[in-house]
Amino acid sequence: MIKWLWYVNGGLAVASLIVLVTGLVLLPELHADATAAAGTADAGSGSSAEQAGGAGQAGMKDSPLVAVARAYVKRWEPKPRPKPSVKPKPVTKPKPVPKPKPPEKGALTVTIAPAEVVTAGAQWQSAGGAWHDSGAATELIVGSHKVRFKAVKGWVKPAEITVDIAKDRPGVGSTTYRREKPPPPGFVLDGTLMIGSDYGLAWIKLPKAEVPQLCAMGETIENYKITLVADGSITLNRDGFDYKLEVPKPKPPQDVKAAKPSTKLPKRKPKASRKPKKPHSSKRNVGRP
């Protein structure tokens, strides 16, 4: 028991020695920290006292032992780690999109012939756009363009054409309509009469007329103009197409052959054969009264 107490007292003495040495070593530093902490506390309490209306406990200080204890505890408190600095990501500005260049354009002009079809309403059109008159110009994108034409009654519509337009050279196209061939005239030439070498008359029978009509060269009958009269024929013209009529040739008379009497006798039908009659019996009846 005594031995055990001796060990305890020895341990306490060693511990006291360690505490004393540690206090002597750390006392200056702890005292400095305590002084700083006390000053901070005085400043904080003073400001709070002023805010509270000048209370009487504004000048109270902690005892040196309490200040040393607080400083010792504060020394071994874990210091807060500094927050890692996060660098802001660089903002990438979108690249400016270049504006598309407007397409280059040029002029297109198309002429139509003859003048009669232009008067009748012939027009041209490109890329499904509006219809334009002959000689009119329109602005289109540089390149190749197909041009089509409007149908006009009595005229043959021309086929589509392709016109090229360059930046420094306008596109120019042209086309020509031609007349549709009209039906042949339903006239009948009854006769002609020449008056000189380059003039003549003609008797023409119209389809619904009963009597031929006398016409001179140069006259127009139902849109057909007599351009030439010759011996037994005339030439008519309509829309640039010529038609020639001739006096119909007389039909040759039909040969009537005389009926010759036939020499051949008509065949007689054979007579039907008669059956022979039975001969009469010449015997008399014997024994009749």
Reading side by side through the largest sheet, how are the strands ordered? 12-13-14-15
Strand-pairing-aware structural class: alpha+beta
Low-pLDDT sequence parts: 44-59, 282-289
Strand content: 25-35%
Helix/strand order, N-terminal first: HHEHEEEEEEEEEEEEEE
Instruction: Provide a count of the helices.
Output: 3
What is the share of helical residues? 10-25%
Give the total of beta strands: 15
| Cα separation of the termini | 219 Å
What's the rounded overall pLDDT mean?
A: 76
The biggest beta sheet reads:
4 strands, antiparallel
Question: What gyration radius follows from the Cα positions, in whole Å?
Answer: 71 Å
What is the overall shape? Answer: elongated
Explain this structure:
The chain is α+β, with helices and mostly antiparallel strands. Helix content is 23%, strand content 27%. It contains 3 helices and 15 strands. It has helices spanning 2-51, 64-75, 115-119, and strands spanning 105-113, 124-126, 137-141, 143-149, 155-156, 161-165, 171-176, 178-179, 188-194, 200-205, 213-216, 220-221, 224-230, 233-238, 241-246. The strands form 5 sheets. It has a 4-stranded antiparallel beta sheet with strand order 12-13-14-15, with no helix packed on it. It has a 3-stranded mixed beta sheet with strand order 3-1-7. Strand 9 (188-194) and strand 10 (200-205) form a beta hairpin. Helix 1 crosses helix 2. It starts with a helix and ends in a 43-residue tail after the last strand. The relative contact order is 0.07. Residues 44-59 and 282-289 have low confidence and may be disordered.
